[in-house]
Design a protein that fits this description.
Nucleotidyltransferase, domain 5; 5-stranded mixed β-sheet; binds 5'-O-[(R)-(carboxyoxy)(hydroxy)phosphoryl]adenosine; binds zinc ion; 338 residues
Length: 338
């Protein structure tokens, strides 16, 4: 079976083809980051227009890459939500219309399920059931994954998502958008012991998160300490130290909550996915923690941490082959989808 996957929920147009026998046979990605960076965040209308411009050429390129024609496909999967409504509608219209024209099933994929299943694209992959930490720009979720489609949310953020906290802190420090990777780069040169930042929600029971207090704490610390800097070199060092302290607080909070969830559920396999799973400090901390507490962590490869078509094609293929897919005659997008 060959499944075309379409991702257009935010600022990446991702098109891929997953073959249930041969794995990923095409993977095309166009990132709009440069377009939005000048505005310091994603501009929804510009995102929709850029998806319109790129989506069909990318589908053609994916077919060329896989050396097949549209008529060779067996199903079309697309991200139906959550995300920016205009951006989602581009993928939904193209996906649904293509499926209709080719007389193929159309599969609506939940963007976060795409992230959740992305580590299964790797050779060393987890088996169901497992625990999953989903950390992206819009979500911070701890999920008990029993099998395909059987997901129980154990923890959620009460305010900002982890990636959002990275992005806002990056903006505060004058770093480009999206700031997660710039904070990580800067943190590598900083002293994470210079300030003691709070570990939000750690002294409360449960598995929920909250990052907005940490964000405010970071802002106050940065503004206060900046006044004491005598020259540019000191300001730069302070910036790196703030980034390091912030990152350590986020990583510490995320990893300790994972450990708490592992103890609570008894899972021995932990999957970490979504844009923030590209964070090296997070990966390293979990690897060390896993050795000590006897659990194994699985991450997607770097290119599948952020939004991409491969994870949608794969999630579509899983749903299609396991017949966990509902047919819907309408073209629908769900900007908020639980
Ligand atoms: O999954 P994703 O590409 O898009 C959403 O579905 O939201 O996640 C994007 C988020 C952004 O907030 C970005 O700053 C963050 O992932 N991110 C990182 C790193 N790389 C990307 N955060 C921390 N460290 C990184 N290395
Ligand atoms: Zn995403």
């Amino acid at each position: 079976m060959k499944i075309l996957g379409i991702e257009s929920s935010c600022d990446e147009t991702g098109i891929a083809i997953y073959d249930t026998e041969h794995g990923l046979i095409a993977d095309q990605l166009y990132s709009q980051i440069e377009l939005h960076a000048q505005y310091g965040g994603v501009v929804p209308e510009l995102a929709s227009r850029d998806h319109v411009r790129k989506i069909v050429p990318l589908i053609q390129q994916a077919c060329q890459e896989a050396n097949l024609q549209l008529k060779d496909l067996d199903a079309v999967a697309y991200t139906a939500g959550p995300g920016l409504v205009g951006a989602l509608l581009v993928g939904a219209c193209v996906g649904k219309s293509l499926a209709w024209a080719l007389d193929l099933p159309a599969i609506e994929v939940h963007h976060m399920e795409g992230h959740l299943l992305a580590p299964l694209l790797e050779t060393d992959k987890p088996e169901f059931p497992f625990l999953c930490l989903l950390v992206s720009g819009g979500h911070t979720l701890l999920v008990d994954v029993q099998s395909l489609g059987d997901y129980k949310i154990l923890g959620d953020t009460l305010d900002d998502a982890a990636g959002e906290a990275f992005d806002k802190t990056a903006k505060l420090l004058g770093l480009p958008y999206p700031g997660g990777r710039y904070i990580a780069e800067l943190a590598a040169q900083g002293d994470a012991t210079r300030f003691k930042f709070p570990r939000p929600m750690m002294n409360r029971p449960g598995l929920d998160f909250s990052f907005s207090g940490l964000k405010t704490h970071t802002r106050v610390a940065w503004e206060k300490a900046q006044d004491d800097c005598k020259n540019e070199a000191e300001t730069q060092q302070l910036k790196a130290d703030i980034a390091a302290c912030f990152q350590l607080a986020v990583v510490d909070t995320l990893t300790k909550k994972c450990l708490r969830a592992i103890k609570q559920t008894g899972h021995q396999e932990l999957v970490i996915s979504g844009g923030v799973s590209a964070n090296i400090a997070l990966r390293e901390t979990l690897a060390v923690m896993g050795q000590k507490h006897r659990f194994k962590s699985y991450f997607p490869s770097m290119k599948y941490c952020s939004d991409n078509g491969a994870m949608i094609a794969f999630a579509g293929a899983m749903r299609f082959t396991h017949k966990v897919t509902a047919q819907n005659a309408l073209i629908k997008a769900y900007p908020r989808w639980s």
